[in-house]
Amino acid sequence: MMRLGKGSMDEGNELEAGLEQTLKDFRSSVHAWSDAEYSRPRETANMARPMSWRVAAGWALGCVLAAGSLGGGLYERHHRQELAKIAAAAEAASQQKLEAEQRAVKESDDLLAKVDNDVSRQVPQAMEPLAQLMAEDDAQ
Amino acid sequence: MEAIARATAEQFAGLEMEAAAQEFSSVVEAHRPQIFRFLLASTRDVDLAETLTQECFLKAYRNWDRFRGDSSAMTWLMRIAINLEKDHWRNRRMQFWRHTRTNSVDLAEASEWLPSGERSVEQQMMAREQVAHVWRAVEGLSARQRTVFLLRYVEDQDLSEIAQATGLSEGTVKAHLSRALVKVRAELRGK
Lengths: 140, 191
Fold this sequence. Notes:
The complex is a heterodimer.
Chain A: H1 17-39, H2 44-121, H3 128-139
Chain B: H1 2-43, H2 46-62, H3 73-93, H4 107-110, H5 121-139, H6 143-153, H7 159-166, H8 170-188
Helix pairs in contact in B: 1-2, 1-3, 2-3, 3-7, 5-8, 6-8, 7-8
């Protein structure tokens, strides 16, 4: 059984050899660490440089990201406008085509109706009085 | 005549202040490393230990005229340091980011500082391992137990000095020390 350092602490708490050695090692390590940190030169000026470099790099990266997202947004908007223009043109063309088809169908129907009318009007001479009677009946 | 007396009094006052400043700077020179070491061991944070050491001496300088010499300057300074550390943790507890990462040095890193002496590599490794166990035990101690333990086994202070520095009775110091040792022993035995 041994006692530690100057202490020979009168608390009657004698320490076993292993623990005493460990506590001495602990003390030595704290002293060595503290001495090293205490005598370490402070590098405040050098510390400022990497910080300013980091700040500049951070700003540059931020600017690049902002410009990229802005450019991307503008490109996307332009692309959408182009697509909308193309879609509108296609819509107009199909509308025109539809109108032309409808017009052609109507013309064809009119022609057929005229022909039909003309043909239906031409009755034999002998049937003319009967046709007049039918027309009168229709009118009534 | 009055003007001369006033000038002389001012001169004396100036000389007194100069002497006090010189006395204080010698106290700083003598005790700064020890205060820094105690705070470093308590916080395991180099930057925080430096900041608290500066605050300690600033506070001591402001109150230097009130120091009556009832205890040694070292004990007085240690008491200021202990209170500053306590205040620091109390203020930190109030902050919502208290659980965020601190600058504390890792336990393994803290135990790397053991001087090699005349030991074999194996012995050195074992000793470092034991020191790491002590650090781990110290981390698990209550604030008072840790303070008492560090003052006793790092700063090599006796019970009366520790009692004066902490404002506790010698009996309480002894009890805290005993409990701290129980925890250190348990950690060393791997319990």
